[in-house]
Task: inverse folding
């Protein structure tokens, strides 16, 4: 039963941009299963598959976590960064990164693999217990977990008072110039923040190979990533 519920939760989270608050997740589980508390607890606190951002609402009536806690799906599976033919032995999927990000412009002419059903990838997905996921579900999972896929946020842009923070590369910077606290979901300045809360034209170029849908959902993808990695920095005065 535990494995069945675990797979259901992973698929459900992947179908909902990688995360759900516990209240909505619990409702979805209840529509299909009657789950013992100890089973649900063991699934939710499986650190290899689930990350939880604790909510602020109080626990009521033996609840496992507060209803507004954000439940995020995670995995240790990564994409191999070697060029095709150069990898002799690894534990990563042999896939084109732009295929995963949603928009490989080379299509069937791409030199990098686009197949999840190759013997190597199929065996690896089975070993990680992810062979039942659809392509869309798997790519959502990888996007918010594999640091190789998402552009890094410029730490220098998020410091200093200039229009580019203290980033010396200004418009030629290869990292993302966006408010890190906004992407983490904890910017206290809101619309009055002097850091960008939107991806500008320069930022869009950095996301070459990303589908429009994934660009639209970048806030959720990055927020989930920060929750998973625990890289939520202490707030600083902007």
Result:
């Amino acid at each position: 039963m535990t494995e069945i519920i675990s797979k259901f939760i992973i698929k459900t989270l992947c179908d909902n941009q990688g995360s759900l608050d516990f209240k909505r997740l619990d409702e979805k589980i209840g529509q299909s299963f009657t789950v013992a508390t100890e089973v649900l607890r063991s699934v939710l606190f499986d650190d290899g598959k689930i990350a939880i951002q604790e909510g602020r609402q109080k626990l009521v009536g033996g609840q496992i976590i507060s209803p507004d806690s954000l439940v995020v799906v995670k995995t240790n599976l990564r994409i191999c960064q070697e060029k095709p033919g150069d990898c002799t032995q690894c534990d990563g999927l042999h896939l084109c990164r732009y295929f995963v990000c949603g928009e490989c412009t080379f299509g069937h002419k791409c030199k990098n693999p686009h197949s999840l059903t190759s013997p190597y990838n199929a065996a690896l997905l089975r070993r990680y217990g992810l062979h039942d996921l659809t392509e869309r579900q798997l790519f959502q999972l990888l996007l918010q977990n594999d640091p190789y896929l998402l552009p890094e946020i410029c730490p220098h842009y998020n410091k200093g008072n200039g229009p580019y923070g203290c980033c010396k590369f200004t418009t030629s910077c290869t990292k993302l110039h966006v408010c890190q606290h906004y992407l983490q979901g904890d910017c206290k300045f809101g619309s009055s923040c002097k850091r960008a809360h939107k991806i500008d034209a320069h930022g869009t170029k950095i996301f070459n190979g990303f589908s429009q849908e994934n660009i639209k959902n970048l806030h959720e993808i990055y927020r989930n990533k920060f929750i998973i990695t625990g890289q939520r920095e202490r707030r600083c005065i902007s």
